[in-house]
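Narrative of activities, Objective 1.

The group set out to show that a structural description can be obtained from nothing but a protein's sequence at a throughput compatible with the screening campaign. Below is one input-output pair from the validation batch, recorded exactly as produced.
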Amino acid sequence: MAKLLLFAKNTKFFVEIVALQYIFCTFAVNMITIENIHKSFGALEVLKGIDLHIDKGEVVSIVGPSGAGKTTLLQIIGTLDKPDAGRVVVDGIDTSQLSAKKLSDFRNQHLGFVFQFHQLLPEFTALENIMIPAYIAGVSQKEAKKRAKELLAFMGLSERASHKPNELSGGEKQRVAVARALINNPAVILADEPSGSLDSKNKQELHQLFFDLRDKFGQTFVIVTHDESLASITDRTIHLKDGIVVGESSKENESDDKVDAVVTDGDDLSLV
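Output recorded for this entry:
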């Protein structure tokens, strides 16, 4: 009887996990499609046929050794550079079909960027720096200021709104840069080594901020990083080497491993 009860309990747990995974996969909405991307600089082929799909609301990290093509791939996703072959579709829009003007508008309205160094303009306050992309998008000053203040409040920086970059700490500057990336409600946030210049405390806070933002605003995050602690908590990690995808790891796979461990543990019970 004890074995039967344990088997039933393990079976119920296994079925619940499978059902949840099925529901997630069924209703997942694809946000970024990358098809057969090639990119060379002179005789050096940096990307050698990259294919990826990233779902809406995913926080995905891209890792790999220096020279693997991580930043080049991120720049192509962000339409900052063009591939030699292949295409990138973001939020249902094939970016290869856009003119230079439309591409600039698309970048401003659909994408947000966070870099290793904040890239804040030194002559403007935190509030003003955040508002700049909204101005470019044609948003009124009143609306841009309201949105920027809301983002500063979310970042816990309301009292620093009137401070210029040289009056902010490293962590504060990077949070202002994240707020700037969010001002136009982009579908996708692209981050290149966003915590690379921060100390361990500010790194941890920034990493958690990405997930808080995803949960509150629903954005998709694609993050290039060498930081193992950040990569380990993202929903999925893409491993690049020599310009190709050599593997993926995800929390979902980790859950599968835990399910297998539970089902096969104790009294040699197993499900086939």
